[in-house]
Design a protein that fits this description.
alpha+beta, 34% helix, 29% strand, Immunoglobulin-like
């Protein structure tokens, strides 16, 4: 129910009860606002948002990781808001990125050698985590046998329980050196909203900066560490039960208003009915 529809209902309500008392009008309008507000809140809840931080893994320590997670939780700038995630499916994203860039006369070989994940923070103790870290090691090989390096970036995707791959983050550009493990890249992601408790798979698409097309892909099909991560976003990971209480309280308030309206409406209409009977 959008705001225009709510406003139209309000106008009809006011017209239909024009002859009634002011208190009845107020209750009618309050009911419309309450129910309309509840629908809008449910719609907003479905919006998926994440907050992520990407960096070379060797550049941070465990304490810095904890600090990054704390910053993620307090940030008001989601990846989707700042353009680090599109929320598109993988097919849409590939089509979106297919643009005439620079085509190479010779192509080095890229691969993602390994990846692993860690889970962090399950505040409601239901076995589903709101934060996870993805670390992956991309390598590049040249045909001449010499050590080589390349500037790359990755598009990252989540799939809910075998569903479509949805883009949740684009890394910054970073440099990889041959088969070195010192260029492992780490992305710490906190699911802010819209991810209900379920199992999620991960997929990595690697791109070379300035060139068109995916150069390497790595997913849960290649490594079980990227398979069936038990995750949920912060709006589903609430330690306190007062959220449930508030929801019941809101429902109770709505019914209370309905009862009050019926009582008041009866008092207003009763004299009119008596007057008709006497006529």
């Amino acid at each position: 129910m959008n705001s225009q529809l709510i406003n139209r209902i309000k106008r009809k309500v006011i017209i239909n009860i024009k002859g009634q008392s002011l208190s009845v009008k107020a209750i009618f309008i309050a009911l419309v606002i309450i129910f309309g507000g509840q629908v809008n809140a449910d719609q907003l809840k479905t919006t998926q948002s994440t907050v992520s931080y990407g960096v070379l893994s060797a550049a941070i320590n465990d304490q810095m990781r904890l600090d990054i997670i704390d910053t993620n939780y307090t940030s008001v700038f989601s990846d989707q808001l700042i353009g680090k995630a599109t929320g598109k499916s993988r097919d849409e994203q590939i089509t979106f990125q297919d643009s005439p860039l620079i085509y190479r006369s010779y192509a080095p070989q890229f691969t993602i050698y390994n990846a692993f994940t860690t889970l962090q923070d399950d505040f409601d103790f239901d076995g589903y985590y709101r934060t996870f870290s993805l670390v992956f090691d991309a390598d590049v090989y040249s045909y001449d046998g010499y050590d080589s390096s390349a500037a790359v970036y990755a598009q990252l995707y989540l799939s809910k329980n075998g569903g479509p791959w949805i883009n949740y983050y684009r890394t910054d550009d970073f440099i990889i050196h041959s088969d070195s493990d010192q260029d492992e890249y780490e992305v710490i992601t906190s699911l802010a909203s819209g991810y209900n408790a379920d199992n999620y798979d991960l997929l990595i698409d690697l791109y070379q900066v300035g060139y068109d097309g995916i150069v390497a892909t790595y997913s849960s099909n290649d490594n079980p560490a990227l398979y069936a991560l038990p995750l949920e976003s912060g709006d589903y990971d609430d330690l306190y039960v007062d959220t449930v209480y508030v929801q019941h309280g809101g429902s109770f308030s709505s019914w209370l208003l309905i009862i009050l309206f019926l009582l008041l409406a009866g008092r207003v209409l009763k004299p009119r009915l008596k007057s008709r009977d006497s006529d």
